[in-house]
Amino acid sequence: MSLDRLPPQNRDAERSVLGSVLRDNDVINDIVKIILDPEYFYFDYHQKIYRAMLEIDKISSPIDLVILAEKLKQLQWIEDIGGYSYLAELWDAAPTAGNALYYAEIVKEKALVRALIHVNTDILKEAYDPVQPADELLGMAERRILEIAERGVTSDTATLQEALRDAFHRMDARKSGDHADLSGVRTGFVDLDNLIVGFQRNELIILAARPSVGKTAFALNFIRHIIVEEGLPVYFVSLEQAKIELAERLLVAQSQVDSHKLRRGMLGPDDVQRILDAGNVLNRAPLFIDDNPSQNMLRITANARRLKKRHDIKMVVIDYLQLIEPESRRDPRQEQVAQISRRLKFLARELQLPVVALAQVNRASEDRQDHRPRLSDLRESGSIEQDADTVMMLHRPGKFGGDEQQEDNTIEVIVAKQRNGPTGEVKLAYVKQYMRFENHAFTDTGGY
Questions:
Q1: Could you tell me which of 369, 364, 394, 368 has the C-alpha nearest to residue 209?
Q2: Which stretches does the entry tag as region Disordered (predicted)?
């Protein structure tokens, strides 16, 4: 393919945008939301005219042929743009300002494609004559393409009145129960759902614990509830375990067959039948698994977008955050993790669904007398705590001594942060042989 061809552009659309502003000055407020930069115009003289319009708009002055011509004269651009006669042509180019946003979208689209061509040309040159390792070249390519994608995001604002209207509408929907997903995706654990009101759309939820406490098992339990009991599709990114291992764990939890017997191949006829029945149930469950052990946010985001469009997934679960490949290996580890947590938050906002990311905590909790994890224990980056809307931490009291008969099967879910709700603790029972979490039973006295 020749790179000497004229880059994508649409002169008529650019002229119509500028002509629309001359006919209706209010149009510029809508156009600014779409065309964020004068460089979106391909032709230099159109860039200069638009810059002049923005300068006039800054002082709240009307934009007409006379004032625009005077501003261009002050900037010494009047001859560059073709003189007064060209401004008159722009007026005629847009008989009405009603289609201004449509024309502006065309200009924006052409600009983004030109930027993509420019970046890909640079990437091609770097690839043919590399001065950096392949993984760093991939990171550079990803960052530059993502920068273009971010330029394509249209900014928008809303009045407080509009926000209040939406808030009252959501409250009415929650009260009537007509729109269940507005109250969050339920985990299936009664006390936890009462505390966090389910996993909320647009939110990043961090599930953190020390190794071997049960992060993956807990995640698979609420995933199983969501896909089986609620029938909602979920995208599960497993960077630690293969899909066959995850399938076995789901079968064990669903069938309540002893996992040790399954691994040893010592299943009786009743066990086999329960496994088959569980398989039939899980076969109908909408779970999408990606178990590629080497993944970055570009791949995760692309898959999530595709699954949202094709299957309308309601949640993304990632096991676990610190195993996601960084965008740049040159950055300090703390900055790498900070970039990943920010991208996860953006993903939740973009797709309007909860993103649950499992995370490791450091050893500091093991040195405390009570061994309970805290927010400050999140490994490698304080930005995880900052970006997260909810942080849940798992703690197994029986792992650190005490009355093991009473505590070994108890898991505490510590809601250490909840941006829009209370913090607190919930106890769950962990049935180890079934890899299954259950609601903690109440005693006769009303306590746990």
A1: 394
A2: 363-382
CA nearest neighbour of 65 among 12, 15, 23, 11: 23
Q: Which residues pair with 238 in a beta bridge?
A: 319
pLDDT at 176: 66
Residue ranges covered by each domain of the chain: 11-151, 182-439
CB 110, CB 9: distance < 8 Å = yes
203: pLDDT strictly greater than 70: yes
Q: Catalytic residue among 240, 335, 425, 438, which?
A: 240
Q: Are both 11-151 and 182-439 of the same fold?
A: no
- Sign of dihedral through CA atoms 379, 382, 383, 388? positive
Is residue 142 among the annotated active site residues?
A: no
3-state helix, strand, coil in the chain (%, to 5): 55, 15, 30
- In eight-state DSSP terms, residue 207 is E
Could you give the strand order of the β-sheet that contains 424-431, starting from the edge strand earlier in sequence?
Answer: 287-290, 234-238, 315-319, 355-360, 204-209, 390-395, 410-418, 424-431, 436-439
Chain segment 134-178, per-residue pLDDT in tens: 877 877 787 788 777 766 665 556 677 777 787 777 777 766 655
Using an 8 Å Cβ cutoff, are 43 and 66 in contact?
Answer: no
Is residue 143 a contact partner of residue 327, using CB atoms and an 8 Å limit? yes
Helix H or strand E encompassing 77:
none
Alpha helices in 152-234 (DSSP H): 160-176, 190-196, 215-224
Q: Percentage of the chain with pLDDT > 70?
A: 87
Looking at domain 11-151, what is its CATH homologous superfamily? DNAb Helicase; Chain A (1.10.860.10)
pLDDT in tens, 250-267: 888 888 888 777 777 777
Query: How do 390-395 and 410-418 pair as beta strands?
Result: antiparallel
Domain 182-439: what homologous superfamily? P-loop containing nucleotide triphosphate hydrolases (3.40.50.300)
